[in-house]
Each structure stands twice: as C-alpha cells, then as structure tokens.
C-alpha cells in the first residue's frame, strides 16, 4: 500500500497469509465486527477485513472485503498503523487506516458496533486485534504518532523499539529536503514506518519461523532491485525529510545484519551473553556510509545472508528459545530476534521503493 493517503498503490507480489484489517474511525469511535462462531477466533471481535489475494494491493483487498462483509464502499486507504502475526496461524495482519462511504451492514459478521478506544479494551477481541488496541490505540499518548524521529543509540530496529512507543515530543514538523512540500506528523510517521511498526510475538509456530527466514533470504535481491537504475543523485536523496539517503540506507543494512549475525551466533553458543550495541547513526555518517558505492554493500549483504540463512534453517526448537541480553531491552530469545530482522528486511526496502514511487523514478 502506498504510504500517502488516497494515492492508489501499485500492485505487488503477494505472499500467502497476508491479511489487511481496516481501521475505520468516525469521530472518536471505531468499527468492529464479531466473527461467526464456526470460524477461526469465532465469537471474538475484530477490525473488519480479510486476506489479500494474489496481485492485490491493500486498497483493492479492502475494497473487496468491506463490500462483501459490510456493504461499504472504500474511499481511500492510508497508513499501515501496526503489523502483527496472528498467534497459531501463518497470517501477517496489517492494520490500515481506511476511509469508507455509507453505513455498514453485518453481511458476514454476527453483529457490528462502533466503540471508543477505551471501550475496546473491555471487548473480547481476537489476539492480533487485542495487541493492536493495547500497543497502538491505547499506548501512552494515544494513537497519534510521535512528532519527530526518536533517536536511540542502538541499532536493533532503526526506527522503532520493542517496548511501548515513546510519548510525543514537541519538536516541529521537519521541512522536506527532496522537493516535496513540508510533511505533517501523520505523513512523517507513514514515511518512517512504511510497513508499519514492529510487533513481536513471544512464540512462533514452525511455519511462521519459516516465513520469517524466507523474508530474510529474499532481502538482498529485493534491496538490489530497489536501487537498480538509480543514478548518483537519486542515491543521495533522503528517503524522507530529515532521514538517511538511499545510499546510507543501503550501507546501513549490512552494518545492522552483520551485527545481527554475530548476535545470533553468540546466543546459540553462549549462555545468554550480553551483546554490545553500536552507534548506527554515527556509522551512517562515516565516509563509507555517506559516499561508498552501493554495490559493495549489496555484494556483502548477499554473501552474509547466504551464510546466515543456511544457519537459520538448521536451528532446532530448543535453539530458538536460547537468548541474548540486550543492554536496553533485556532478554530476547532467538525467535524474537528473528522477528525483528524479518521486519527490518521489509522495512528498509520499502523506504526505497516508496521513495521511488513518490518521486516517479519507476
């Protein structure tokens, strides 16, 4: 889905198990439906939506699903607010802002209702929906995003943390440096998190782990494709106002994933070792990060991921529960680390592909 509200996104390849959940808000209430008893999570409340079919983008999926479920016409889709893996099923659920026209009718749900954010906490929600409500809608400061990039010293997730999102600060909107008009807070949030914020489950099924490893395996080719054909000026364009250039993003990925590879190996061979963090922002400002040819990092990433993925595919059930100690985040199992870098692999590729789409470089 394109990050800019109302702009139809280009079709993309679809992986099995993708679900779009429509976050429909009118004034201060949200629309939910109760799932039929005979279905998965039967009797639980959910944000309406469904599977993304092959060849569909989020707009097309939302249009089809909401017409079938609620007799609603979708006017536009906006940001991806939150991404979660449905516990016990191989579904990645994207909670997406959706604007609709008309009044909903319960065509497939047993009932529907509008509820305030604080009322949702008392409802019997499906697991992923409950996480979205708890970790996004009801997080400190409310559902509005922070107003400026949150700076932190470690590289774990370049634009996010595993714990609750920090409260908003008071910095003003950042002026664009790429020829775009100045962006507001909501647009900046979408540019920073084009695939949504990270969500980490305590445990995964073997099928979910396999999908995460597949994402990591595919990342080098996707990153190379994302920068293919870009000239030097385009490579030196920030992916968002105040953000890294495309070149810096490319060089950051092997910086991060080299550290990740070492952390996985330490966790597998030592008893909950305390890892060493690094100053990712300062690394990005070093000469090789600011000016180096991207092909060097792309080649490095391909070799690194080849070896990393071969190892990941042979970790056993006991191995996934081994852990590292992060100085700021505490204990993390290798299974949780896997989810971080699965998300991270999609996150940075989307920074570049969304920039290309906005700038008309495709």
Can you offer a commentary on this structure?
- The chain is an alpha+beta fold.
- Helix content is 40%, strand content 15%.
- The chain is built from twelve helices and ten strands.
- It has a four-stranded mixed sheet.
- The longest helix is centred in the last third of the chain and has 26 residues, at 334-359.
- It is globular, with a radius of gyration of 20 Å.
- The relative contact order is 0.12.
List the helices and strands and how they pair.
Blueprint lengths: L17 E6 L1 E2 L2 E6 L10 E2 L2 E3 L6 H13 L2 E13 L6 E10 L9 E6 H4 L6 H11 L47 H8 L13 H22 L4 H4 L10 H24 L10 H6 L1 H5 L2 H19 L4 H4 L2 E4 L3 E4 H26 L3
Helix pairs in contact: 5-10, 5-12, 7-10, 7-12
Query: Helicity, in percent?
Result: 40-55%
List the strand order in the largest sheet.
5-1-7-6
Can you give the mean pLDDT? 82
Beta-strand proportion? 15-25%
Shape: globular
Query: What is the terminal separation in angstroms?
Result: 16 Å
**Strand count, sense and closure of the main sheet?**
4 strands, mixed
| H/E element order | EEEEEHEEEHHHHHHHHHHEEH
Please report the total strand number as a whole number.
10
Which structural class best describes the helix and strand composition? Answer: alpha+beta
Oligomer: single chain
Number of contiguous helices = 12
Give the uncertain stretches in residue-range form: 1-16, 145-182
Radius of gyration, in Å, reads 20 Å
């Amino acid at each position: 889905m394109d990050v800019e509200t109302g702009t139809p996104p280009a079709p993309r390849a679809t992986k099995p198990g993708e679900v779009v959940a429509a976050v429909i808000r009118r004034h201060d209430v949200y629309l939910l439906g109760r799932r039929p008893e005979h279905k998965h999570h039967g009797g639980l409340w959910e944000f309406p939506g469904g599977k993304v079919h092959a060849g569909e983008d989020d707009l097309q999926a939302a249009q089809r699903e909401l017409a079938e479920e609620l007799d609603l016409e979708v006017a536009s889709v906006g940001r991806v607010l939150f991404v979660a893996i449905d516990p016990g099923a191989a579904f990645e659920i994207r909670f997406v802002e959706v604007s609709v026209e008309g009044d909903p009718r319960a065509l497939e749900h047993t009932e529907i209702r509008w509820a305030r954010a604080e009322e949702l906490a008392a409802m019997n929600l499906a697991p992923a929906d409950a996480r979205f409500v708890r970790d996004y809608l009801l997080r400190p400061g409310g559902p509005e995003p922070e107003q400026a990039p949150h700076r932190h010293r470690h590289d774990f997730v370049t634009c996010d943390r595993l714990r609750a999102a920090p409260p908003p600060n008071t910095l003003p909107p950042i002026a664009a440096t790429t020829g775009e008009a100045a962006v507001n807070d909501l647009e900046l949030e979408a540019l920073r998190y084009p695939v949504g914020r990270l969500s980490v489950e305590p445990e995964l099924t073997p099928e979910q782990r396999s999908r995460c490893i597949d994402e990591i395996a595919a990342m080098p080719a996707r990153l190379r494709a994302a920068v293919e054909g870009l000239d030097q000026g385009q490579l030196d364009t920030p992916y968002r106002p105040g953000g890294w250039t495309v070149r810096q993003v490319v060089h950051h990925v092997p910086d991060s994933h080299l550290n990740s590879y070492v952390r996985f190996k330490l966790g597998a061979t030592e008893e909950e070792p305390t890892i060493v963090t690094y100053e990712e922002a300062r690394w990005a400002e070093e000469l090789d990060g600011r000016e180096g040819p991207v092909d060097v990092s792309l080649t490095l990433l391909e070799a690194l991921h080849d070896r990393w993925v071969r190892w990941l595919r042979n970790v056993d059930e006991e191995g996934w529960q081994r852990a590292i100690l992060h100085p700021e985040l505490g204990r993390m199992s290798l299974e949780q680390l896997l989810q971080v870098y699965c998300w991270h692999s999609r996150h940075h590729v989307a920074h570049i592909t969304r920039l290309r789409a906005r700038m008309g470089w495709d």
